[in-house]
Amino acid sequence: MSDLPVEPRELLLALFQTAVAAADPSVVLPGFLASSLDGKIGKGLGGSVVVIGAGKAAASMAATLEKQWCYGELKGLVVTAYGHGVPCKHIGVIEAAHPVPDNNSEIAAQRILNLVADLNENDLVVCLLSGGGSSLLTLPAPGISLSDKQQINKALLASGADIGEINCVRKHLSAIKGGRLAAACSPAKLMTFAISDVAGDDPTVIASGPTVADPTTRQQALAVLNKYQIDVCDAVKQWLESSVSETPKSETPNLASTLFEQDTFQIIVAAKQSLQAAAKQAEEMGLMPLVLGDDLTGESRELAKAHAELVRSIVEHSALDKGRPVSAPCVILSGGETTVKVRGSGRGGRNTEYLLSLAAELKGEAGVYALAADTDGIDGSGDNAGAILSPDSWQRARTLNLNITDSLENNDSYGYFEALGDLIITGPTQTNVNDFRAILVLPL
Q: Which of 269, 288, 323 is the last residue of a domain?
C-alpha cells in the first residue's frame, strides 16, 4: 500500500473534519456581515434591528453575529434543532424538532412573525438561514393543523421525494415559508445570510425559501402529493385547490432566484467550499482528489452502485477526470443530498444507506476505504453523522452473521454499522452543507 501520513480511517475522518471546519459560521460569517452591514448602516438606518433565523446552524450564526455587532442595540429570535443551541446574550434561541416539526417549531414561527410585525422602512431585519429550517420554522396555513403537516412531512420523507419536491409542498401549506416571511417583514429592509445545504444552492429551496419569491405553484404541490400517493385530509386538499394558498411571486417569475425589491440574499458558504478544502488537504497528503461534484442527488443506494463502478475502473486500470488519468492512490469526493425510499422498519440515514449499498457492491475490495456523513453531525434522525467502511468490514460483518441484503431491504444501515463499531458520532457541528462522501483507493 501507498505510504500515508496517517492510517486510512484517520485520513478519511480528517478530511471530513476539514470539510466541516470550512463551513463554520464563526469563520465565514464575519466577513459578510462587515461588508454588508457597513454599507447598510452607513446609508442612514435609523430604526430597529431585528435578528431572526432558522436552521441547524442558526444559533451558531446568531452568536457569531452578536460578537461582531457594533451598531447599537439589537433583538431577535432564532430556532434551531434540539442539541444545536448556542448561548446568545440578546437573541433568543428556541430548540425544536427535525426532520418532523413539533409544537416548538410552531411556537418559534409565530414568535418570529410577531417580532417583524409593524416594522417600518427605517427598520432592518437580518435573517440567518441554514439547512433544517423547513422543519424548524413551521406555521401551518389557515385551516391546517400541525398534525396534518407532521403526517404529510413523514410520508414525503419516506417516499423518496427529493428536497425540492418536499419543500414545494411545505411552502404551500405554510403561513411563513415560500416568501411569506419576507412579505411579513415589509416595508423594513431585509438581509438574509444563508448556509446552503441544497444541491445547486437555490435560495428558494434553502429552508423552503421564507425570504425569497417562490417560483413553485400550488398545482405543483398537488402534483407532488399525487406522484408519491400521499394521502391528505380534506382541509389540505381544499386549501391547495384554492388560489389563496399560492405563495408570493417575483415580478419576473421566469427567474427563480429573483429576490423581492430592496431585499438582499447572500449565501455565505456551501458544499463547494467544503469539498475544495478537503481536496486541498488530500493533495497535501499525497493523494489525487477526484471531485465528482457538490450537487449529487438520487437514491442513496443507486448512487453507491455508480461509485462502486468508478472504484472498480480505478482499481483495474484508471479512470479519466477531464482528460487526465486517475489512479491509486486517490480519493473520490462528492457532496449533495441523496434520498432514501423507506421499504423496511430499520434505522438509518441516507449516508449510512449509501455506505451499506457501497459495501454490498465492493464486497471487501482490497485497498478501498470510504466515509459518508452529514456535515451537520446528524444522519437522518439518528445520533450519528454517518459511518466508515474498511476492506475488512465485509468479513467482520459475516463473522457477526450480519446479512447485508436483509439490512438493505429493512433500511437498517444504522444497525449494521453499529454492530461493526463503525458509526461516526460527532454531535451537532453547528453548521450544515449537507452530505460529504470520500472514497479512498490505495494501490495494492
A: 269
Domain range spanning residue 314?
Answer: 8-20+272-441
Asked if pLDDT for residue 40 goes beyond 70, the answer is no
Task: Using the predicted structure, report yes or no on whether residue 1 has a pLDDT greater than 70.
Answer: no
pTM: 0.92
Choosing from 251, 269, 287, the residue where a domain stops is 269
Give the integer Cα–Cα distance in Å for 302 and 297.
10
Question: Do 381 and 317 lie in a common domain?
Answer: yes
pLDDT recorded at residue 251: 62
Torsion of CA 256, 257, 258, 259, to 10 degrees: 130
On whether both 242 and 282 belong to a single domain, the answer is: no
The CATH number of residue 141's host domain is 3.40.50.10180
Higher per-residue pLDDT: 204 or 46: 204
pLDDT of res. 212: 94
- How many structural domains comprise the chain? 2
**Nearest Cα residue to 148 out of 165, 172, 132, 129:** 172
- What pLDDT band is residue 416 in, cutting at 50, 70 and 90? very high
**Looking at the structure, do residues 311 and 420 belong to the same domain, yes or no?**
yes
pLDDT on residue 259: 45
Q: Tell me how far CA of residue 218 lies from CA of 73, 139, 149, 248, 396, in angstroms.
A: 40, 17, 15, 11, 50
Tell me how far CA of residue 177 lies from CA of 254, 344, 392, in angstroms: 20, 32, 47
Q: How many CB atoms lie within 10 A of CB 59?
A: 29
Q: What is the pLDDT of residue 254?
A: 42
C-beta separation of 202 from 195 below 8 A: no
Residues 244 and 227 in one domain: yes
d(CA 137, CA 104): 9
CA distance 359 to 393: 8
**Mean pLDDT score across all residues of the chain:** 92
Sequence-distant (≥ 6) Cβ neighbours of residue 242 within 8 angstroms: none
Residues 205 and 222 in one domain: yes
